[in-house]
# Entry
Amino acid sequence: MKVKGKVCVVTGAAGGIGEAIARRYAKEGAKGVVVADMDQGRLDKVAKDIGGLAVSGDVGQEGQVKRLIEEAEKKYGQVDVFFSNAGIGRGGHEDATNKDWADSWAIHVMAHVYAARALVPKMLARGEGYLLNTASAAGLLASMGSAPYGVTKHAGVALAEHLSIQYGDRGIRVSVLCPQAVDTSEGVHGAQARPRPLAARHAAAARQDRRGAATALGRRPEPLRGNCTAKIPRVARDDTSIVDPQHPISNGPDPMQRLKTLRLIA
# Structure
């Protein structure tokens, strides 16, 4: 599937990776780009700049994900590409609060589930569709300093793997984005990703750990305008099966064997 002429929905799009990808989709000739986030002001600006539709809301709530998809269909027609990108930063280990664990689970896992629940039946009926989920290198490696973040990002990768295997031979393509460290103004994915003030110190430590891990692998955090944004429109093509990580990641004997059915960007 190529982006040109398609309807694309991007969550966490008021800033960071989501905003950059929404702009790139528009540049690639998408029929319509729908951007979603919790920051209405910044979201409206992005939508105005790209000639798209802004729909504010919390993707951690199923009803709001359904509403997002309904608004996209009402404006442009069937949703071809759903980029579930919103993320949040929560620090701590097993002692993190129940709310931090629940919020991380809702945004990093259930938001992807809600999108799939709403879209998979429609995509199956027409024999095509594309689900692209943002996880993290923290979904492949332990994320020291932020257990809620790393554990739920692992779950996000597992969900994408499941969807890819379950529906890949029925026309639905699934990819998971696993960046190591991307240097955005927020340091995380979009306005919805900004940590609460009380969690800011822990989130900063977690971001530093991720930057340190990337540097240890021989790679500095790349600017948002770099390879991360350039690859995503390219991966949504019929002739693409896997985009290999730029650097091998050690996660058992051969992590790529487990992820061989996914188009993995790292």
Summary: The beta strands are 7-11, 32-37, 53-56, 81-84, 129-134, 172-177, 182-183, 222-223, 263-265. Confidence is low (pLDDT under 50) at residues 186-227, 235-255, 260-266. The chain has one domain: 7-265. Helices lie at 16-27, 40-50, 62-76, 98-126, 147-167, 200-216, 227-235, 255-258.
